[in-house]
Amino acid sequence: LEGNENFMANIEDISEAAADLGVKKGARDSAEVTITDNDSVQVNFSPTIYTVSEDGESVELMLVASGPAPFHYSVTVDTFDGTADDGSDYIGGSFQVEFPAGSTTASLTVDILDDNLPELDEWFGGLLSVSGVEGVTNGPQSLANVTISDEEEIFVQFDRAGYIFDEDVGDGILTLVADKPAPAGGYSVEVSFADGTAGSPGDYSGERQTVFFPEGATSVDFAVPIVIDSLLEGNENFMANIEDILEEAAILGVKKGARDSAE
Fold first, then answer.
1. Cα 14 → chain centroid
2. What is the pLDDT of residues 188-216, one digit of tens each?
3. With the C-alpha atoms ordered 155, 160, 161, 163, is the resulting torsion angle positive or negative?
4. Which pTM was predicted?
5. If DSSP codes are grouped into helix, strand and coil, which group holds residue 167?
6. Do the strands 187-195 and 58-65 form a parallel or antiparallel pair, or are they unpaired?
């Protein structure tokens, strides 16, 4: 891309034979010839796919021009929401990205916001456009996609290492606690039971249970039926264990805490 160029054509000499015939240069003995430039520069995102950690602070979007231009120009990048929200997950807007004369690369930095909430990966986009710049257009790679990966973790454990229930209590209430509120949609963990001196089903119901943490919850109670057997037998025990983190919970970063079993 170089702009229009020109050169001059001049009637330089009248040959002797022509001069003898009276041939002379007229008033318009030179002419300007202009070569119009029809080349163009295309600007694209390169690459078009980006991934950034939620605690990564920012992501740099790269723009590449197909060739240098002899003048300074700017292009526009407009961000738009996908599953990520402008103002809560990232700081978006309409940005002018400058290309100094002769340059072929430029970049735009978009700030990422860490909301400290466990959640699925989210994304937003960038749209490149060029207007009012002669000889410069946006190319086929005018869309960029940015994935914000969430690396927050939730640790789930029992609220204590041991529980004591009277045999005639009916239901023994156990409590699971999490160190962060459950995200939108909640998640589930599974609790299994293992006989000690108490046996299932004679002393308690040892069926595996799925315990659900609804959105915003940091603790959940669940009941274990205790069976009255009318026998004098001394104290008995069994173990409750956080057995499995279900797939959707694992995706959210849910993990077993240090106190993953209780007597």
1. 75
2. 999 999 999 999 999 999 999 999 999 89
3. negative
4. 0.57
5. helix
6. unpaired
